[in-house]
Every structure is written in structure tokens, then in C-alpha cells.
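Deviation from plan, reported transparently: adenosine-5'-[phenylalaninyl-phosphate] complex.
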Amino acid sequence: MAELTFLEQLDVLAEAADSTFEAVRTPEALEEARIEFLGAKKGKLKSIQKQMGQVEKADRPAAGKRFNEIKQAIEAQLERAILRVQTLDASDSDVPSGEIFDPSLPGNACRLGHLHPITQTIEELKDIMGRLGFTVADGPEVEGEWYNFEALNIAESHPARDPLDNFYLATANSNSGLPRLLRSQTSTVQIRVMESTPPPVRIISLGRVYRPDTADATHYPMFHQMEGLLIDHQVTMADLKSVLRLFATSYLGSEVHIRFRPSFFPFTEPSVEADFRWHDEWIEFGGAGMVDPNVLEAVGYDPEQVTGFAFGLGIERLCMRRHAINDIRELYRNDVRFLQQF
Ligand code: FA5
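Because the crystal trials were delayed, the predicted structure below was used instead.
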């Protein structure tokens, strides 16, 4: 039989590689095939390459070109075989050999996480207040003194502005040079909304606030508040009470009672503490009152034309009441065994 030419040998090699790699199903067979065809010393491709020198000089460029094509094709086959073996390997671990794979069986359920109880509470509060016609407004957590104090009628000498009672930042606002602090209440958003919107206003704002309070069962240095603000013509304390009652009964159930205790906030007049009674216990949830005329003037509203009410509730306290959590610190320990109960 006549000896095969170089090009014919290449073709034979390509066919052999094709069927060998196609048949590969295991890592061992893969390694064998790789060495047989692509082995650096004794691989079949290498041996053919060595014969290149015997090809007529004139035919060498064509032979070299064909050799490279076949080499690339074999390398691509190797890649495909690697992928195939990996895939088979992965499915093999689920399906022991001999067992039939039944695609109609339910899969292995993966453990899903869920929202943190505070986030769940925030979503529920938004939902309840949304049904009462309140839209959600937002504001920054790093604030200037105008929004956290001044526009809220909190004078320079007021103890609430004491640096020891606030988290002031070491660096001032780069544009204005004014001091900055982490907001201590969401009432800042009242000012931001009124400055940018003409009345009427009906918003809630939910977010983090910061105070250097020592952590105990009911206090934490970072907590969440829900601010509410309604400004319109002829708004009264009766409107405030009915909104808070509707809110409380929607959140905790129809057996909840609500009570106002006289209080003081520089930005509301009159001011109250709102308590809810649930399961024979009165709990303070937050402060509220009629927006002080000085605040309305600070944002450019006419207190002769419009009045309104505002309230600020502690979201942790609401969440704890609902779930009978008796220590606020549990919410922030990040213990999944605790959090997954809710
Ligand atoms: C205020 O922050 C006022 N801005 C509320 C307000 C808004 C009054 C609008 C009038 C009009 P106060 O400091 O009382 O008020 O805080 C409100 C609620 O936040 C408290 O009732 C309590 O539920 C919660 N709270 C206060 N400090 C903490 C704390 N360290 N940890 C957890 N919750 C807290």
C-alpha cells in the first residue's frame, strides 16, 4: 500500500481525534485522549509535525497551514470534552449510577432568606399610611443644623443641640463650611418637603436616625422613625388624633386605644406624646402636635392660611410590640436564629 502523504496523514489524524474526543465521558479518558493527541513529547500531532521537514519545499506553506487548522480543531475538541466531563461530573453527584433521573420530582429547595423585621415593619407602615393618602418622602441622614434644629424652631441654646447629645461630623459641609451631623430625628424631612412643595402636603418619611443614647432594652443609638406631616386649610388636633387612631388600629388591631399626653416639642404647639394601649399596657410610640407657626414661616408658608399636624413614631417600638420582642438589641445582634422567626 502506498505510503500516505503528509496531508493524508493529517486527515487520518483529524478523524481519529474526532471520534476519540467525542467518546470521552470520564476525567481519565479525557487525560488519555489529551496525551495521545496533544502530548508535548509523544503526542500524535507532535510526531506528524516532525515529518514536516520531509515535505517538498514548495508544498510546505500549504502543509503548514493545514497542520495549524487541524491542531486548532483538536484543541477545540479537547475544550468541548472538558466541558462535557465537568457537566457529567456535576450531575453524577446528584444521580448515583444506575438510578433513573426523574425530572418530575420536586427539586432540592434552597434556603431563602427574608426581609429584616424592621424592613418588614417599614413596608407595612408605608402600606397603611398609603391607604390614608400619605405619600413617601425621603431625606439625607447627614444633615445641616438648619434642617435638624433651626428651621424646626430649636434655638441655639436648646439642650437638644448639645454636641454631647448628637453625632456631629468632624468635617463641615465642603460648600457652605457649616457643621454637619447625623440627623437625630426624621422631622428634618418636614422642612425639606415644605421648602420644596407648596401646600397642601401629606407625607410620611421613614428612615434611620442617630443619638448617642446608651443601648438598653428600649433604646439604641441608631433607630428608625416614621415622620408624618399633613398641611392644609383648617387642619385640627381632631384630624391628628383620628389619623393616629386609624393607623394604630390598622397596625395592631381594633382593640387598640390611643391616648394623648401633654408634652413639649419646639416645632409643634400644642405638643403631645402619643401612647397606645394594647393588652392592658400603655406604650409611648412617639411625639406629635400641631405644626408651630414659626416652622411654617421658616419654610415660607403663611400660618394664617394653612395649619397642619406632624408626628414622629419609633419604628423599633412598633415592631417590638407587634412581635412581642422585649429587647431592642435583639434586632441588631444579627443572630439569624432570632431573626428567622419573623
Ligand atoms: C422626636 O424625635 C420628635 N421628632 C417627634 C415629633 C415629630 C414630635 C413631629 C412632634 C412632631 P422623641 O425624641 O420623643 O421625638 O422620639 C420619638 C420616638 O422615637 C420615641 O417615642 C421612641 O419611640 C423613639 N425613640 C427615641 N429614642 C430612641 C432610641 N434611642 N431607641 C429607640 N427608639 C427611640
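The beta strands are 135-136, 142-144, 167-168, 180-182, 201-210, 222-232, 257-265, 268-278, 281-291, 307-314. We consider this an acceptable substitute for the interim report.
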